[in-house]
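User: I need a structural model of TctA family transporter from Franzmannia pantelleriensis for a docking pre-check later this week. Nothing fancy, just the predicted structure tokens so I can convert them on my end. Input:
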Amino acid sequence: MDVIANLGIGLQAALTPTMLWYCFIGVLLGTFIGVLPGIGPLAAISLLLPITYYIGPEVAIVMLAGVYYGAQYGGSTAAILLRLPGTASSAVACIDGNPMARNGRAGVALFITTIASFAGAITGLIILIFFSPYIAKLGLKFGSAEYFSLMLLGLVAACTFSDSPLKGGAMVVLGLLLSMIGTDVNTGVIRYTFGFSELSSGLSLVALAMGIFGVADIIRNINTIDTSRLNERFTMRSMLPNRDDWRLSLPSMARGSAIGSFFGTLPGTGASISSFMAYATEKKLAKNPQRFGKGAIEGVAAPEAANNASAQTAFVPTLTLGIPGDITMALILGALIIHGITPGPQLITSQPELFWGLIVSFIIGNILLVLFNIPMIGVWISLLKIPYRLLYPTILIFISVGVFSVSNSIFDIYTVIGIGILGYVLNMLRFDPAPLLLGFILGPLMEEHFRRALLLSRGSLDTFIDRPISLTILIITGLAVCFIIASSVRRRLRALRTAKESHAS
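Assistant: Understood. Predicted structure tokens for TctA family transporter:
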């Protein structure tokens, strides 16, 4: 009954014309920002932050939150159609979403993406409504040792993205090495910049994502004219998934939502690791994992459900503990503090209209996103009718503008070109770029938590096995490594047996 009464309070606050208008503006801006590669919600929220002084705290947070989770919806659109991830967490959508588009199933991929995003968001909101206080207490039990162990598990899982776990591991290590470029946070020492002062703050994540996926793909397809894409006719019927698509997607959405909800509640993890973990889980559970990377619909549904669930549950530590889940959440937290609102355990009881009004507005915003995104699928698919020789210069302009807008540096444009050439070479050698991106994202966080754990334990590595949660995660990681090795050996023996049989015949 308390939940129903609280939602009633939230409805009264969220259904005012002003709140509905700014909710609509936020999700609309978020969708377009997600579609445009390279800009991302962080830059958009930074630009909108001064406006919050004039429109009031409640509507300001509703608008900024709409930009944040709206970008999660839109980020997969360019990833699926053009292999350009609009956000870092939507990079996983490139792996199977883009092959689906190339196989004439762009409409199905975008439709499933919208439904999975909505399912993940609603799951995250249900958890936010019913379990916020309990999840906040669980999050407090995670220290640096637990976070390091959890991220290590994520990197081990990323090794399974490639057909060869060895190649996947090599890409993870390369991502970790690239993440070390820049200034050491603890000592202030500049590392691996090779004399380029522009690298003192590290490689740009946007430049890396755009280069390794977008520019590399353009180089590979620059002389290709895909007539099947030009002749594709879009109808509402062609957009709807068939029975097999639903059979494969629905369990994947459920698992992705659960994974995203868990990782979203942990400060510092964010949507990126949840989408990668969801993809790795689906590939492990699949009866035929060879389908992944070639247009498996589960490889689209699970990560999209995960990153949208994570986007919603990221508000749990932000609102109930005052601990932001990622940089974007830190900006939203700053907006709350600017207006004299102190996030913490007392927020729910001291300002119920604000807290529950935000929750209900999130529900309304996600419904608006579905109503907005499904009719727009035909518009996005029309991009595929443009000949590639005319489309890629426009893509390059978007990449350049997006990369330059992050730090106003021409050097980042040169960086994205260099990374694009590296990505093309890696593609030719059949190295999957997704593990590299995850290694790059988690590298600084892993280093920070590893050092902090050792500092708190006075240099003793026993801290990682003395803490029960960390030990449990490390055991799971060890079992995952053993499973990967056993699977690789089994696959190699099967290939040798098949080769002998074919040679004998």
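Before docking, keep this in mind: Residues 2-504 form one domain.
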